[in-house]
What we know:
Strand content: 15-25%
CATH superfamily of the largest domain: Methylthiotransferase, N-terminal domain
CATH architecture of the largest domain: 3-Layer(aba) Sandwich
Radius of gyration: 23 Å
Structural class: alpha/beta
Shape: globular
Number of helices: 16
Largest sheet: 6 strands, parallel
Number of strands: 21
Distance between the termini: 51 Å
Helix content: 25-40%
Amino acid sequence: MADQPxxxxxxxxxxxxxxxMNVLDSELVVARLxxxxxxxxxxxxxxxxxxxxxxxxxxxxxxxxxxxLGRIKHLKKKKPELAVGVLGCMAQKDQGQILKRAPHVDxxxxxxxxxxxxxxxxxxxxxxxxxxxxxxxxxxxxxxxxTSSFDSYDADREPAVRPSTFQAYLRVMMGCDKFCTYxxxxxxxxxxxxxxxSGIVAEAxxxxxxxxxxxxxxxxxxxxxxxKEADGRITRLSDLLARxxxxxxxxxxxxxxSFPNDMTDDLLQAVRDLPKVSRYIHVPxxxxxxxxxxxxxxxxxxxxxxxMLARLRETIPGSSVSSDFIVGxxxxxxxxxxxxxGLLERxxxxxxxxxxxxxxxxxxxxxxxxxDVPEEVKRRRNHVLLDLQTRISLEDNRAFIGREETVxxxxxSRSTTRKEGWEGPxxxxxxxxxxxxxxxxxxxxxxxxxxxxxxxxxSAVTLFGRVAEGQVAGPV
Length: 476
């Protein structure tokens, strides 16, 4: 009897734009689609399904997706069976507008419905009709009713789609209740909800079994994490860190992004006292001017932020802190901006992510305040902050020269030659316990291991070194 022909796997091309939440969402979507017979491809022309996991925080991110949709229009004409999907925050925000601008799209699926991607792709093909699945708007009913429309599907993990074999994101909470006036996230990701700690710990064990050495806990304001058990007990982020610290195989734990008002003493003490927890905290300031912070509805003053930062550094010696800033927000004067410059100069962040303000339809700022800072002024202020942060980062990184640091090796450096004029063979890259990038010569078998590296040079973003003599740690 002749062998039955085996069906060829379907090809999936997925492009992810935006934050670490989207990177994790894409991993989970790919895991679901693998179960449905898809395998990943980097060749968009060979794809049977093309998915864009989107971001709505800035206009540039949305423009990029609409441009990409325009470029693949010819592929859809050539291959009518090709499935095209827009996923994530932009899908939740724009909904039917996407189908008007790109009628060749088959599925539009918000971040609270991503577990349905395989089902909806199949339905779109079967019915030859675009499918849309989005969660309820924040004002569409009670908090419980709206929250229930944002489904969680974190059980499926897919190592093949991770940027690193040894690192993985782990969601601890979804949504946001802070309602900063410039931010669309509370509208597109729904009410804040913390996952049960038992599920998070179980997922961490699964990741460890897959070879993950470093997990990064993610949430829109991750240090707001608080879960109430049936018996009334409250699990805070500090308690969760302690439970994750006991997971065998996991050697380093990080968490992002934090909110200044929720930087509690118990959390700082946990970072200090738990050896696996990285001494690195990302806590956005956004502005150094109280009037701007008030318009942003950040719920703290610049003085509060600096007091929080001093308490953090006193509690966790040797820690590093990074931040976010928005320049050119509505009503930001030259005097307001100079206050931000002063805050950045005094705070000496490891690095800062600096953005020009972009009005977003659906945010309070877009309704309440005119976008009154000229683009050229935004651009100049952006350069000023970037230049200042680069100088601070270079000065602080140079202080590491001559020191030995324990580095979790992530694998080969993306660049095959040394930077800063160095010459030599291919190099490895990793990060220190305080999240500084280190590039150094070394064999591939060090990947996924803790290794002592002596720092010999530094740029504003990278430390350069060599493996310390006799200091290679054993397998982790």
